[in-house]
Amino acid sequence: PYSGPSGDEILKKRSEFLSPSLFHFYKKPLNITDGKMQYLFDEEGRRYLDAFAGIATVCCGHCHPEVIDAIINQTKRLQHSTVVYLNHTIADFAEALASKMPGDLKVVFFTNSGTEANELAMMIARLYTGCNDIISLRNSYHGNAAGTMGATAQSNWKFNIIQAGVHHAQNPDPYRGIFGSDGEKYAKDVQEIIDYGTSGQVAGFISEAIQGVGGVVELAAGYLPAAYKSIKKAGGLCIADEVQSGFARIGSHFWGFESQDVMPDIVTMAKGIGNGIPLGAVITTPEIAEVLTRRSYFNTFGGNPVCTAGGLAVLKVIEKERLQENACVVGSYLKDRLKALQKKHEIIGDVRGRGLMLGVELVSDHQLKTPAKAEVSHVMDQMKEMGVLVGKGGFYGNVFRITPPLCFTKEDSDFFVDVMDLALSKL
Ligand code: PMP
């Protein structure tokens, strides 16, 4: 049993000693003390079904024993030295990661976060092309350092600092976008930005395949092939941000970009790659990677033995436990059940996503698509009381984000939907 400080005591310390910009979910914030696979436990030992997984991060399950063993064993042996010496963990993990990539994408740079990975990817694109302009999508989230904050396109996450060199293209959002599900029509905006907003040559394009923070928006079919074509014609590199949609989460494919049948030049990842330990990576081709030999690129903790040993264990668990297949089977079952729920509850405007990356958008008016933000918060609170945790997001904060650990079962899905149903019925 837990014997540490209570939630109230932590809250008091947090308000005194931690960032004043920290926010929390729930009227009475949860004090989470333990995790086990798809469950989290609070200070009183109460169990919650976790359908958020630390923002699509915990892929194998909380404290998965095989991942924990790998981390502990490596920690006992060597926790840190530096990449100027040799160690097998980083090389083994790089090789294993490269084996999951298509084509010539096989050179791995390790970082500690998604922000760092995207910063590095954008720098590589700029160095390789000798151009500065990057195109990203409205409603995207790519990180919170100066460069990636520029690529991020939601005012909620942008501070007033210089964020230069990024253009934001129309978002191919099938629910709210003006062209519905016609991906090719939205992609014309990428060509127009190149034609009217740049010299005609660009450094690159960065996008998620399914926008996570933006409220689980799956890019309209046909968008990425058309956008990539324009970018490649303008000499740019295409960067796939797989921080949320990667690592088997979407079920149908291992990587999000594969669902649109495109071949990026650079792929970035974080979150799921480490099942909760700080780890990120950039993968590109040997030819593109060469640009970093012009100077030194160094990252103290990037690729450290503990995180790379953990990362390798994560990949092994995904394969051994067939988590991609599970995400596909359980995810489509859950989506079907959510679609059925939509028929019952007028307030559900849209159910979307793939595998175990699903979104449910609440609107108070179907025609106007008026965001029902307060209702989302209320339902979340009710669901928590019934033992289920879910995320929220989207520019208007009116979308439930359902991104559970990939070991989620059909029974968990039933429980989740029944609880959501009950909470919606009480609105
Ligand atoms: N890209 C995407 C798609 C993300 O969702 C996030 C984090 N929410 C990031 C990049 C940044 O990752 P990190 O918080 O690890 O810096």
TrEMBL record:
CDD domains: OAT_like (cd00610)
Annotated Pfam families: Aminotran_3 (PF00202)
MF terms in GO: alanine-glyoxylate transaminase activity; pyridoxal phosphate binding
Keyword terms: Pyridoxal phosphate
Cofactors demanded by this protein: pyridoxal 5'-phosphate
Lineage: Eukaryota, Viridiplantae, Streptophyta, Embryophyta, Tracheophyta
Cross-referenced InterPro entries: Aminotrans_3, Aminotrans_3_PPA_site, PyrdxlP-dep_Trfase, PyrdxlP-dep_Trfase_major, PyrdxlP-dep_Trfase_small
GO CC, one annotated term: mitochondrion
Protein name in the entry: alanine--glyoxylate transaminase
EC number: 2.6.1.44
Recorded catalytic activity of this chain's protein: glyoxylate + L-alanine = glycine + pyruvate
